[in-house]
Amino acid sequence: MSSWLSEREQRLVAGAEAISAATPIPTQIVSNGEYLPPPQSETQKRVERRMLELADVSSKRLGLSRRQFMQTSCGMAAAFLAMNEIYGNVFEVEAAEAHEPELMLARAQSLAGQFVFDVQTHFVRDDFKHEELLGLAAFASEHWNPKMKEEGVSSLARYKFQNYVKEIYYDSDTSLALLSGAPFDDPSWWLLSNEQIVKAREIINDFAGSRRLLAHSVITPKQPGWMEEVDKAIAVYKPDSWKSYTIGDPLAPSKFPWRLDDEQVMYPFYEKVVKAGIATICIQGPAATRLREIVRRRLGIRNCLGYRQGRQGLAADEFRRVPFRAAPVPRVA
Question: Does pLDDT of 55 surpass 60?
Answer without folding.
Answer: yes
